[in-house]
Structures are given as structure tokens and as C-alpha cells.
Amino acid sequence: MNEIAPDKMPVGSHDNMNVSFTKHTIQLQAGDLIYAFTDGFADQFGGPKNKKFRYKQLEKLLLDNSHLPMNEQKEILNRSFDNWKGKCEQVDDVLVIGIRI
Fold first, then answer.
1. Residue 44: domain span
2. Domain assignment present for 22
3. Model pLDDT for residues 32-79, shown as the tens digit of each residue
């Protein structure tokens, strides 16, 4: 897995509107997977100790299921999120986009 570090600024209106996002160019091959996601999944509280899901756990979930068809990955992500969240309130918007080349 190769991670492209995100820019630490919001997508919407903010104080430094004159600062542009970093442009990244990568070479892709057939079969490659690209995942883009917001912080909402990783920052969700839940689980047995009411802790955040965390990025490492999300990374492992994506890697463990990357061999599956995209619709199955979606179901696993939805189920994992709901199981983790349990009765806790959702704390943020959640977006995970997966693309298989």
C-alpha cells in the first residue's frame, strides 16, 4: 500500500483560500486499487471501549478485503462501521471511495 499524504486543510472555505492543494501524479496499472476517504470513518467512536476506529484499523480492513469485488468491500465497510459505532452517535460525515483500475 502506498499512501499519499493529504494536505492539512479543509475542502470548503477557510483562512488560507490562496493556498492550493498539492497535485500528485502516479502511474497506475490494471488491477490497482485506489481508495480515498475522509477522516469520518477513522474518527468514529465505538467498539468495546468507546474509542476511535483509527486509521491503522481502516487500513487493515481495506487491505484484508482488497481482493474482493468492490460491491462486497462496500458491504464489509458498511457493516464494520455500523458494528463499531454501535449505539454511539455518528460524529462526522463518512466517505470512502474505492476504484479498481
1. 33-100
2. no
3. 999 999 999 999 999 999 999 999 999 999 999 999 999 999 999 999
